[in-house]
Model the fold of this input.
Amino acid sequence: MNTAIVDLRSDTVTKPSAAMRRAMYEAEVGDDVYREDPTLNRLQERAAEVFAREAGLFVASGTMGNQAALKVHGKSGQEVICEARAHIYNFEMGSVAAFAGLVPRTIWAEDGILTWELIAPFVRGRGDHRARTALIELENTSNIAGGSVYPPEVFDDIADHVHAAGLPVHLDGEDFQCQRGGGTAGDRIDQESGLGDVLSVERAGRARGLDAGGEQGIH
Ligand SMILES: Cc1ncc(COP(=O)(O)O)c(C=O)c1O
Done:
């Protein structure tokens, strides 16, 4: 009988395998400011290729990727619409306000899965009194809602309407495999969100780090 224990408390409790540790130890390195780190360059290029983006940018954590995206997409004093259990709202030390300068407008949704019908009444344009909506943030999979997954048609519908309103979608793409497809919210997510972020390349051992795909100008 196999008595090995699989610890599923969190994706952060997994550890790199011996092969992963060796790959890290032996990795070619260089100065990333001069774009001379071959390993980092390959990682960024690969991420851009996988997610059909102009460029990829390595950041050290998921939180960092989210905050960079929020800062890029919003201006101080504007709003970000997100689900009530969103990581950016609940688990990022208020950085959504402190760093990105945004007011979170939260919406409670069944299983953490927003729909355009839920979002639409809260989208606000320019006005004299209220904060304007800067972007819509979606989380796939939805961590605190139990790992629920956006069905592709729900995501497409949101993306179509949000883009028609002239706004960006930021995807907190917690699960790399999920963003890639595999019967879940698929490629459209990667291509449509203004700055889709994707957690670690070696998810199985959760090597730290994240690659945010976007446009060159964003860097
Ligand atoms: C949905 C989601 N977004 C962001 C993060 C933050 O990632 P990190 O711990 O690398 O900052 C997590 C972490 O588990 C997460 O589940």
User: Anything to note?
Assistant: The chain has nine helices and seven strands. Residues 180-209 have pLDDT under 50 and may be disordered. Residues 61-63, 66, 87, 139, 143, 172, 174 surround pyridoxal-5'-phosphate (CB under 6 Å). Residues 24 and 207 are 9 Å apart (CA to CA).
